[in-house]
Write a sequence for this structure.
């Protein structure tokens, strides 16, 4: 029986394993050093916040793995010997494979800041980080203040977590506005305001210079490039992630920032594949990045590679881009491409609407000349994935999207709807006179 | 704000302590005139032995606490009945149960401060409880901060994480239900507190079921305030909470009491068979048939409600229209029980137990009703060698009292707030069939947006592993879903939406989710 070994039990590796099992009888082994069972990394924050227990982050009950004949090995792979198709584990034991899937995910970036390895300095990525945070910042008596360095999704999550325990947080963000490399200006500003509403001390355009140690080797303060010294107990480093592939350096597998793969998720070595955060496409697919460190893409690569492994060779061919996040109390969804001012294409034009009081806004991106709809960002409004996916495939115009926007609303029943206001603003800005169409179940379910 | 909360907590606990002490304090003394009147009204004058023993040991004597009054009354009753049976004087046997006899004697013989100061005592128990609870709850408007999902600390708090506070609440609730169902004599002092209210509504003094009904409404109202604050960003939760509150106060509490005042039968128009398991019991049918037009109307309505209204509404809206918008059991679960919703077990094993139990109860309820009707129309007491009355008694005790009451509510703090609705309610089982196989209701999963975080599953009060469906891109179409909408509320990524739509495409098994290669999705999902 062919033996498939997967390194990493995150969403990419587990998706691959599940789909290989659905389609074959191959022997499947997952090796991980982080945890015994698969858990949802995105849910770690809720454990610290007391919304859930760690066991709730595990999507499958513990009997699931045995029942589906997926062997779990707790161990750290130190070496891949592809000549003999063997893995060397830390304890010295070996594991043979017929096909190897590398799905080792990411690790938090550190940029060589002085003091970055002091006690009390940590990232938020692994389960161990959660345990460390629980020890370093159990409450605001032990942790008088936390400084978070890096204004991305993990940074704001870490800030939200600490705030739930009434720990004062200073949030250092390199950019002039939160996440403005990704979000257009209006949205980024809305989030800036929302961060301040939560009494988080947001410092824009501020960089970390040094983390200062006390006599016991614990962080006690940071200094910034604005010349300030901020006393603190915990420093959270959340300046992005990069592929977790150090153990492959001498393996002969071609590496860039990540493990280089072709569209079939194959590496340069036969029978070795890479998926998820650690995979790097030779050439980016469409507007995507060569390394996509997103939950959904990890899952999609797993789904795709399983087909290849089971004899149905498939290229990784993701559909329309989508993503989501939650910034404190504000939910964010995106479908298609809406670039920030920094990354905006020359053909791209935006329509932005923001509610006068609530933290609700949308940005619609479209082609200046053809008026083709390119994408939408929504804050505080839920949208229907299937509808936007269809509209993007059908290459609808922005006017069409505006006219049928009610079909796309996915907010719970009885929620206040904003399509009327949005359309009024749109008509005023572009001199159109589009009337909104009533929501139609027939249209919504017409092709799904 | 914190200080207000703490003061509120203390006030609440004082009220609760007085309420809890009431069953075992107070003076009871029945005078000759009252006793004679009772003997006539309740027909126990026929048992001279009982009256004699009561005259000797109870009448005119003072007892401290119902626990002192109870033994001589019980002994008098049992000795008299035993002697009468031995002498084959069956007509003189009194069939009132000892507990109920002590209750009714006790109710007439209360004396002293509690009985003379009903208003004050109401204030010291219900009043302090309400004021304290509101002082504890209202500051959350500010303390919870910006509107949004605030489940912070639920698994850090003893009360909501099955800690010692939860166990204390568990013991209190179980004890309360045991008194209510099995030892009502201890509720006599509680009935005095609400006598004035009962007299104004129905014209009668309060019994222990009135205490329960009134308390039910008070608890639901206070805890609804908590719901309004917690879910103030979520209109669905606000509307739904208002709806259950309305149906509890108006339909379950006020209308039946007012009907009694108008010489009509006591009836809750929204309580559908088989949850209302004694609707077809002989005594009920007889009482309805003897109540003229209104009785007949109730009889027809009760049948139409179960056979037509309930399934048709479930077809259009899912069983949520009943279970989390109308039902009293659901109403308590969604208000008092909301802090405990996360304790329902999500394991596959629990789901297996659930299916056996709830459908077992449905079979039991329907079987018992068929026996009852057969007995009624053929005028026999036995069906297939079983005594109808003892099957009814078994159901009333085991399902009606122990399962729905003691376990259903008493177990909230440890096992979650829908124990009864999930494992026991025969009506829920019936609605579940309709919802699963013929309904427009579903929880739609939003394409590929799920990140498997598990908030939905954690906060599902019905123990549905919502995430198991959401992460596969599948809609949730489960017979047990009561449509509370909390999975949708706690989802951080906007993945879940309760909606009523066309039947086609409602169940949508998928392997590869929306957002991936279209060809691959077609290939894998359609094979």
């Amino acid at each position: 029986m062919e033996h498939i070994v997967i390194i990493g039990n995150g969403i990419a590796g587990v998706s691959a394993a599940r789909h290989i099992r659905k389609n074959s009888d191959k022997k499947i082994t997952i090796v991980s050093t982080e945890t015994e069972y698969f858990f949802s990394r995105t849910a770690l924050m809720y454990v610290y916040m007391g919304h859930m227990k760690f066991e709730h982050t595990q999507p499958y009950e513990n009997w699931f793995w045995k029942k589906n004949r997926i062997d779990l090995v707790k161990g750290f792979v130190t070496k891949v010997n592809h000549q003999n198709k063997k893995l060397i584990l830390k304890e010295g034991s070996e594991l043979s494979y017929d096909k190897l899937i590398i799905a080792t995910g990411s690790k938090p970036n550190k940029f060589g800041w002085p003091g970055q390895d002091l006690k009390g300095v940590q990232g938020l990525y692994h389960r161990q980080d959660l345990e460390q945070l629980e020890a370093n910042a159990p409450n605001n008596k032990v942790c008088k203040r936390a400084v978070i360095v890096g204004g991305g999704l993990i940074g704001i999550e870490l800030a939200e977590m600490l705030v739930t325990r009434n720990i004062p947080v200073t949030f250092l963000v390199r950019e002039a506005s939160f996440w403005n490399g990704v979000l257009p200006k209006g949205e980024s500003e809305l989030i800036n305001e929302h961060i301040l509403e939560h009494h988080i001390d947001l410092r824009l355009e501020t960089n970390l210079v040094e983390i200062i140690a006390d006599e016991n080797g614990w962080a006690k303060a940071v200094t910034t490039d604005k010349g300030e010294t901020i006393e603190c107990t915990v420093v959270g480093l959340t300046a992005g992630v990069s592929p977790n592939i150090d153990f492959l350096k001498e393996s002969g597998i071609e590496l860039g920032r990540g493990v280089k793969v072709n569209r079939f998720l194959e590496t340069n070595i036969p029978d070795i594949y890479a998926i998820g955060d650690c995979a790097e496409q030779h050439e980016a697919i469409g507007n995507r990045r060569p390394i996509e460190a997103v939950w959904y893409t990890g899952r999609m690569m797993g789904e795709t590679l399983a087909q290849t492994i089971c004899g149905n060779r498939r290229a990784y061919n993701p559909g329309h881009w989508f993503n989501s996040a939650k910034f404190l109390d504000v939910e964010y969804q995106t479908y298609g491409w809406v670039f920030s001012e920094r990354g905006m294409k020359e053909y791209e034009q935006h329509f932005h609407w923001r509610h006068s009081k609530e933290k609700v806004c949308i940005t619609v991106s479209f082609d200046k000349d053809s008026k083709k709809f390119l994408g939408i960002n929504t804050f505080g409004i839920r949208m229907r994935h299937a509808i936007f996916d269809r509209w993007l495939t059908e290459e609808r115009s922005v006017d069409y999207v505006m006219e049928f926007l009610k079909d796309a609303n996915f907010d719970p029943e009885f929620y206040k709807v904003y399509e009327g206001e949005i359309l009024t603003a749109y008509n005023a800005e572009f001199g159109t006179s589009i009337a909104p169409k009533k929501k139609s179940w027939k249209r919504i379910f017409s092709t799904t | 704000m914190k200080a207000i909360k703490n003061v509120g907590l203390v006030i609440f606990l004082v009220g609760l302590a007085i309420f809890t002490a009431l069953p075992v304090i107070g003076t009871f003394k029945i005078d000759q005139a009252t006793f004679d009147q009772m003997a006539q009204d309740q027909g126990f004058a026929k048992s001279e032995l009982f009256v004699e023993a009561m005259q000797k040991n109870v009448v005119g004597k003072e007892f401290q606490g119902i626990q002192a009054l109870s033994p001589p009354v019980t002994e008098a009753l049992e000795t008299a009945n035993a002697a009468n049976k031995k002498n084959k004087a069956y007509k003189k046997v009194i069939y009132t149960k000892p507990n109920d006899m002590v209750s009714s004697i006790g109710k007439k013989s209360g004396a002293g401060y509690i009985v003379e100061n009903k208003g004050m005592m109401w204030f010291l128990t219900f009043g302090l409880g309400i004021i304290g609870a509101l002082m504890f709850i209202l500051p959350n408007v500010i303390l919870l901060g910006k509107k949004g999902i605030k489940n912070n600390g639920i698994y850090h708090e003893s009360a909501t994480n099955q800690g010692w506070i939860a166990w204390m609440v568990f013991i209190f609730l179980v004890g309360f239900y045991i008194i209510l169902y099995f030892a009502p004599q201890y509720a006599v002092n509680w009935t005095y507190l609400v006598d004035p209210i009962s007299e104004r509504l129905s014209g009668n003094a309060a019994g222990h079921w009135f205490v329960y009904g009134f308390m039910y409404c008070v608890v639901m109202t206070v805890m609804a305030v908590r719901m309004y604050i917690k879910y103030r960003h979520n209109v669905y939760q606000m509307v739904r909470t208002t709806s259950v509150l309305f149906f509890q106060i108006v339909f379950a509490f006020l209308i039946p009491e007012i009907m009694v005042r108008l010489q009509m039968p006591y009836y809750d128009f929204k309580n559908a068979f088989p949850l209302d398991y004694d609707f077809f019991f002989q005594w009920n049918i007889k009482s309805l048939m003897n109540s003229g037009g209104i009785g007949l109307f109730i009889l027809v309505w009760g049948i139409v409600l179960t056979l037509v209204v309930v399934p048709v509404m479930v077809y259009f809206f899912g069983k949520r229209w009943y279970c989390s918008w109308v039902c009293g059991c659901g109403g308590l679960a969604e208000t008092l029980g909301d802090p405990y919703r996360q304790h329902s077990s999500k394991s596959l094993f629990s789901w297996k137990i659930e299916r056996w139990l709830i459908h077992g109860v449905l079979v039991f309820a329907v079987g018992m009703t068929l026996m009852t009707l057969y007995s009624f129309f053929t005028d026999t007491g036995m069906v297939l060698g079983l005594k109808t009355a003892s099957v009814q008694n078994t159901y009333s005790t085991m399902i009606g009292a122990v399962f729905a009451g003691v376990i259903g509510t008493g177990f909230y703090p440890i096992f979650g707030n829908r124990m009864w609705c999930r494992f026991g309610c025969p009506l829920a089982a019936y609605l579940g069939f309709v919802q699963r196989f013929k309904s427009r209701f579903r929880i739609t999963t939003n394409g590929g947006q799920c990140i498997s975080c598990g908030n939905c599953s954690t906060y599902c009060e019905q123990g549905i592993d919502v995430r198991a469906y959401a992460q596969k891109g599948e809609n949730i179409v489960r017979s047990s879903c009561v449509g509370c909408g909390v999975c949708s509320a706690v989802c951080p990524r906007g993945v879940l939406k309760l909606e009523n739509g066309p039947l086609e495409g409602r169940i949508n098994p998928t392997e590869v989710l929306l957002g991936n290669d279209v060809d691959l999705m077609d290939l894998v999902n359609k094979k």
The longest helix of chain A spans residues 295-309. Residues 83 and 269 of chain A are 10 Å apart (CA to CA). The radius of gyration of chain A is 24 Å.
